[in-house]
Amino acid sequence: MENEKLPKRIENFSDWYNQVILRAELADYAPVRGCMVVRPYGWAIWENIQQALDIRFKASGHVNAAFPLFIPMSFLEKEKEHVKGFSPELAVVTIGGGQTLEEPLVVRPTSETIIGHMYSKWIKSYRDLPILINQWANVVRWELRTRLFLRTLEFYWQEGHTAHATAEEAQEETLRMLETYADFAVNEAAIPVIPGRKSSAEKFAGAAMSYTIEAMMGDTRALQSGTSHNLGQNFAKAFNIQYLDQNNILQYCWTTSWGLSTRFIGAIIMTHGDDQGLVLPPRLAPIQVVIVPIFHNDGEKSIVMEAVNRVSQSLKDFRVKIDDRSELTPGFKFNDWELRGVPLRIEIGPKDVANESVILARRDLTGKEGKSIILQSNLAEEIKLKLDSIHTHLFEKAQQFRDAHIFDPQSYAELQKVVENGWAYSYWCGDAGCEQKVKEDTKATTRCIPLNQETGSGKCIVCGKPAEEKVYFARAY
Fold first, then answer.
1. CB within 10 Å: which end of the chain, N or C, has fewer?
2. Which domains does the chain have, with CATH numbers?
3. SS3 assignment for 77-134
């Protein structure tokens, strides 16, 4: 086995990112260009993400269902902005069973249309509302430039789709799910995010209004990490989703959609990773604790392994792995588990057995600072405290890094310089021309208009006209 050093993040962040994914066995390249194979270790992270989100969705009254992978082309054409937005990315099936199909079928890029069709059949009365459905699915978007987890032809996600009686209820749902994503990002992934509204140019195709949680990666680029869309009545009118209200008057529904995908695994890698590899947040890590036995002969092995098994049994409340690979040195194992980002490592050798203790090493801290000697009798309690401490440390470290790279430029020339290695938080008049100019001059886009910003006014950083809202400009993945 090779144990070569990774590229340094500061020297080649992109190469570091790809190498971490491949060497830590999160994913691999598929035979089809732009597709990926998610390996068991990567899928385990996704399963933990699913579980954390699913609990939240169900607690707020949502239920899961499944809708078809194939969508009639005519469905997408019913909502003009929607088909225009997605047409460059569509994969279309024209032959099935050796026969040319009467109507081409689109491989699901998102499900607003097929779900809208079904909702028009299911909803008749105000008593049928609200409908709060989520599905876990794969989708296909024919991207030209792909990158593992961040942008692939096929990826995995959840997509929630709801229908409501009033505009107020739909907006409340849109913001509630945005807050659900923000809560998940902070409390499960230890990633600080900024919830905000997308500009008209950046919103979802077919939405009345789009919201996002934006996170800063380790190279200061932004990553859209989850989105929630108020679709207004656009899809309701396109698919005739109507209900009889309490006065027996026919009304169009108000709908929403919201999603978070395997792209979030990329967010975890790029937010917390270091030059040694992954640094996984404990609450989503497939393995929270790895135990490495250390011995030099069969006599020591017998004594050490008895202690290792006893310690493992005492840690049943955690996700524990015993690394008993006999062909590898302890040093190699240490490096291997550091690469894979396991939050805590326990080392047990003959001296530790005699002292009824273990050596505990934290992944988020280096050298002596991250190591401590813990009595075996106190281990379970100490593990819980350490995992919580790691979560807090990762969040605070990421937040400090983000805040240190957000600037308030005083001129357009300064903004152009800032977005080379950070975010600009500036007044913007809302004009699409100013937004486009920034994009053309710097490759930075408007990331979001944050929901929590001080009221006030200023001058647009681009044109100097009066502006009432601030926006984040940044280069993004």
1. N
2. 13-272 (3.30.930.10), 289-402 (3.40.50.800), 406-474 (3.30.110.30)
3. HCCHHHHHHHHHHCCEEEEECCEEEEEEEEECCCCHHHHHHHHHHHCCEHHHCCEEEE
